[in-house]
Amino acid sequence: MNYNLSDRFVLIAATCSAIALVSTMTPPAANAAIIYRIVNNPAVQNGYTLSGTITTDGKTGTIYASNVLAWSFLESNGVNTYSANSSQPGSTPGMYAGGIVATSDYLALPSSTVSDTYGFWLAGATTLVQWTGSTLQDGAFGSASRANGSWIWWHDYITTTPHDVPGGWAIADSGTPVSKAPTIYRIVNNPAVQNGYTLSGTITTDGKTGTIYASNVLAWSFLESNGVNTYSANSSQPGSTPGMYAGGIVATSDYLALPSSTVSDTYGFWLAGATTLVQWTGSTLQDGAFGSASRANGSWIWWHDLITTTPHDVPGGWAIADSGTPVPILNLRKAVYVDSSNLKIGANYQLQVSTGLNTWTNSGTAFTATNSTWRSTNYWDVDGWSQLFFRLQVAP
Fold first, then answer.
1. Which domains does the chain have, with CATH numbers?
2. How far apart are CA 6 and CA 354, in angstroms?
3. How many CB atoms lie within 10 A of CB 327?
4. CA dist., res. 166 & res. 170, Å (int)
5. Could you write out the DSSP letters of every residue in 165-231?
6. pTM above 0.85, yes or no
7. End-to-end distance of the chain based on CA atoms, in angstroms?
8. Largest distance between two CA atoms of the chain
9. Under a CB-based contact definition with an 8 Å cutoff, are residues 213 and 244 in contact?
């Protein structure tokens, strides 16, 4: 007799015993609630200040109104004050179908190339605040407040701090970002464009990823040599400093990169000792290419533009340093095991597996039943098979 347990796994009873297939999944651990403080940006709030909190169930990633446990806000311009909270009758949070993004540090409205894809609001009985995708320009944002049917403020095209976060616009901040371990990157050597010099060294950051700035660089050192002349500097020497253009650079767990740009010299990064430096910039010869340079005692040892060669190339930019230790990705997969009952104590059994009923393969070694029940120690990947068949045979 066949027991059709799912569209992926079918169990076959052996002549001596029947077995059942049980799929088990460990329940996810409950998350602790997170309290976020609403971000105040008076420059786009028509003279009003905005404060309050949003408490979620702790879920991260895409969240929806159902993940919001409590909230409150207060807005005032010194003359008029409006407020609401989740405990008042008729109060409710709301979101567009796409939800918003939650991290342990902030709540954010994702960026989009389509107007009004994302939106979030806190609505009391007579007053509300909301954040949406811009109705004026794709990819920008709008903030608004309404009280007693009239709009107190409406501001489109917001891209200013303190709201900006990677890939979106932070509307609330937990104030307790997860601490990060420093990351040590090795400076990439590309002698083909370094006028006969080799370059080595390290750059240590505070572990932040996304756009980083000179303030995120904790320590650094470099050494360059052509076999005759050698120049070096490090962050512990007096007068040494890292520097960047206003746009910063990109940090991932694997590398530091100068982003590509269609405007010359948009991005730049340098490590400067008292008398020598190395730098990486956007090209001054061709938009979207790059330049590397080194200077010592006031003269340029090398300057090379239009670099697009490996090992520097990374998606969307030019890697200048590599951690060499990318963060491993851990995935949760659905799996099943088999168990059996009504076994004969002292009898020998062998579990067999087949993908099509024509050929059977032993799974593990035969075992001797020490009680009337048994469970396999192996697991099978649910997603990895279109179907599997199992049987338990009496073994010699």
1. 2-25+334-395 (2.60.40), 34-173 (no CATH), 183-322 (no CATH)
2. 16
3. 11
4. 9
5. ETTEEEEEE-S-PPP---EEEEEPP-GGGTTT-EEEEEEEE-S--EEE-GGGEEEEEEEEE-SS-EE
6. no
7. 23
8. 91
9. yes
Report the 3 state secondary structure along 67-123: HEEEEEEEEECCCCEEEEECCCCCCEEEECCCCEEECCCEEEEECCCCCCCCEEEEE
Query: Has residue 263 got a pLDDT over 50?
Result: yes
d(CA 222, CA 213): 19
Eight-class DSSP state of 76: E
* Residue 224, CB-side half-sphere exposure with 13 Å CA sphere: 27
Closest residue by Cα to residue 256 from 314, 198, 179: 314
Q: What is the pLDDT of residues 209-236, one digit of tens each?
A: 888 888 888 899 999 999 999 999 999 8
Most confident stretch, 2-16, 36-50, 118-132: 118-132
What CA–CA distance (Å, rounded) separates 249 from 319? 10
The token pair that represents 311 in the structure block: 């090992």
| pLDDT at residue 122 greater than cutoff 90 | yes
- Model confidence at 115, pLDDT cuts 50, 70, 90, reads low
